[in-house]
Every structure is written in structure tokens, then in C-alpha cells.
Design goal:
single chain; about 290 residues; alpha/beta; eight-stranded mixed beta sheet
């Protein structure tokens, strides 16, 4: 089964890569509260997508807890703020994880906005072109609905909310969805730490029902996938490793591949758009609107 899923992902990527005028697709992954597995999902998703042949970047915008370095078991010395201050160049901060996966140590949106020196910004944009070949950039945002987080949510092509089947987490996820709905109608949901697909679907339907009643029927809330509750996930984190690497072929690995499949299908949308909106420079072209 795992082989079929992985092959399906490869085929989706292959059929997609023949299209021209593609640009980087920016996918923001967020949550209503911390501790729901957002960064775990972001890192494993980025890895699985990169294994399918896509060029993937993962931008760490969750500065309060910046733990992607732990997930990938790497050391971060400098981040994007050092580049914007002129204390480093873009290539200094990039951390290759695999051949097709690059970690971009970020900063929170409000910190980035403090450094809007035009000359430095232009140099940054020029240097950032080395990442223009990225097919996907996953933005691991902070939890909650702060203004600097909304900046990244507004800049992204897709926004995915991660939650768990816990009443407090569900309440926070709904509040986040309500805020995101002021920026866009299409929102994805990943249910983490669930018993099975039935529980994931039941919680999703509950959130969707309340959201449609209070936000309106323009909202298009989609269940992108689920991750089962599994000790393999927590044990992988303790080992500073990805569960999709340590436990290849497990149910949780199948879950993350299924989510990746759904994301790759979405890549076919909005393909013929400006190729200038690629990579890290493309992300900042969108963020600069907030300057």
C-alpha cells in the first residue's frame, strides 16, 4: 500500500512538472494554539514532498518556538534577519536537509518589517533568486492569530490549520479559521493525533458546521488529511528525527504521504501565473506589501 501511495505521488509530480510558467507555491501551516504538532507535520510534509522529486523549501516563521532545527537535527547560527541587517548573505543561512529540501531559518513578520532598508532589501531580493527553482515553500508560522502571523497567511497561496481532537484546541482552531476567513475563503484542515479516519471526519464536520453557520457559506473548509495518534511520532521527536524517516511504511507515514498527495493535486491550480513570484524573493514581494 505504501509503495502505491508513494508511486502515485511521484506520478502526480511528474505530470505537474511538465507544465511551464510555474512558480513557487507558498503553503502556510498554522494552528490556533501551540503543542498540536504543527511543526512536526510541516517538517515531515516537506521531507515527503521533497522525496517525490519536488524542490521544497521550508521557512521557519515560528520564531517564538523555532524548533525546526530540532526536527531536522541541525544547528542554526544565523537567520533571515541577519541577511536583512546586512550581516550575512542568503546562501549563508540556507541549510540543506536533503538534495531537494532546504531549511530557511526565518523571523517573525513584525521583526522582518523593522528592517525595510531599501538598498539592503534589494540586495536580499537579488541574492534570494538562488531559491527561485523551488516548487513549494512551506511556511511554518507561529501559533495564534497575531498580526505578524496574518502577514504570512495573507501572502500564502494555501493556508492549512492543524488541530487535535481536544475541546480547547478545537475552539482555538475555529477562532483561527474565523480570522483567516477575512483573508480568504479556501482553508485546509489537518486533524492530528486522532484515533482513526472516523474521528478526524467527525471533528472536521463539527468545526465546518459551526464555521458555516457563523462565517457564511462562502467558506470552503477542506479536510486535507489526518495523522493518527502514534507513539512513533513522539519517540521520533525525542530522537531529533522525522517519523517519516525512522518509521517508513508505518501508518503515520502513510498519513503524511496522503496529505502530500492532496497538496500536489492542488499544484495544478494557478499554474500560469507570474514566474517572478518564485522562491524566497517571491515570498518577500508579497510580504513587502505590508511595509
Amino acid at each position: 500500500m505504501i509503495g502505491n501511495q508513494a508511486q502515485k505521488l511521484q506520478e502526480l509530480v511528474s505530470s505537474n512538472s511538465t507544465k511551464k510558467s510555474k512558480k513557487t507555491r507558498f503553503i502556510a501551516i498554522t494552528s490556533g494554539k501551540g503543542g498540536v504538532g504543527k511543526s512536526t507535520i510541516s517538517s515531515n510534509l516537506a521531507y515527503v514532498l521533497s522525496q517525490s522529486g519536488l524542490n521544497v523549501g521550508i521557512f521557519d516563521a515560528d520564531i517564538g518556538l523555532a524548533n525546526l532545527d530540532v526536527m531536522f537535527n541541525v544547528k542554526i547560527k544565523k537567520n533571515i534577519l541577519h541577511v536583512l541587517k546586512g550581516e550575512a548573505i542568503v546562501s549563508d543561512i540556507l541549510i540543506p536537509i536533503t538534495r531537494n529540501l532546504i531549511l530557511i531559518p526565518g523571523e517573525s513578520g513584525d521583526e522582518i518589517l523593522k528592517y525595510s532598508d531599501e538598498a539592503l532589501f534589494e540586495r536580499f531580493m537579488s541574492e534570494a533568486q538562488i531559491l527561485d527553482k523551488l516548487d513549494i515553500m512551506i511556511i511554518d508560522t507561529g501559533a495564534g492569530i497575531g498580526e505578524h502571523i496574518q502577514m504570512f497567511l495573507d501572502a500564502a497561496d494555501d493556508v492549512i490549520v492543524v488541530t487535535v481532537p481536544d475541546p480547547a484546541a478545537i475552539t482555538d482552531a475555529y477562532a483561527t479559521i474565523k480570522t483567516i476567513a477575512t483573508l480568504r475563503n479556501d482553508i485546509g484542515l489537518i486533524m492530528n493525533q486522532v484515533k482513526n479516519q472516523n474521528e478526524a471526519t467527525a471533528v472536521y464536520e463539527k468545526i465546518k458546521k459551526v464555521a458555516l453557520a457563523n462565517i457564511g457559506d462562502k467558506l470552503n473548509l477542506k479536510l486535507i488529511g489526518k495523522i493518527d495518534s502514534d507513539v512513533k511520532v513522539s519517540s521520533s521527536i525525542k530522537q531529533r528525527a522525522l517519523f517519516s524517516v525512522l518509521h517508513e511504511g508505518s501508518n503515520v507515514h502513510k498519513d503524511i504521504i496522503s496529505i502530500a498527495n492532496n497538496i500536489v493535486k492542488n499544484l495544478e491550480r494557478n499554474v500560469l501565473v507570474s514566474p517572478s513570484e518564485s522562491g524566497l524573493s517571491g515570498l518577500f514581494k508579497r510580504l513587502v506589501k505590508h511595509f
